[in-house]
């Protein structure tokens, strides 16, 4: 209940910001989509999905061959 109200308030703020040109309309739509996706995930499980889904691998640049 509280989380749904918070998401709806955030969506309203995003719409206002996009309307005034503070952020791009596509960015607002993307953020709203992500919020709704997380909200629907919370409804099923009753809690927010954990942020520690996968550890990020660090990549290294390949060494160039000397001639």
Provide an overview of this structure.
This protein has 67 residues and is mostly helical. The chain has a domain at 2-45. Helices cover 60% and strands 0% of the residues. The protein contains two helices and no strands. Helix 1 (2-20) packs antiparallel against helix 2 (25-45). The protein starts with a helix and ends in a 22-residue tail after the last helix.
Number of helices: 2
**Proportion of beta-strand residues:** under 5%
Order of helices and strands: HH
| 3D shape | flat
Using only C-alpha atoms, the radius of gyration works out to 19 Å
Key features of this structure:
mainly alpha; 67 residues
Summarize the structure.
The chain has 67 residues and is mainly alpha-helical.
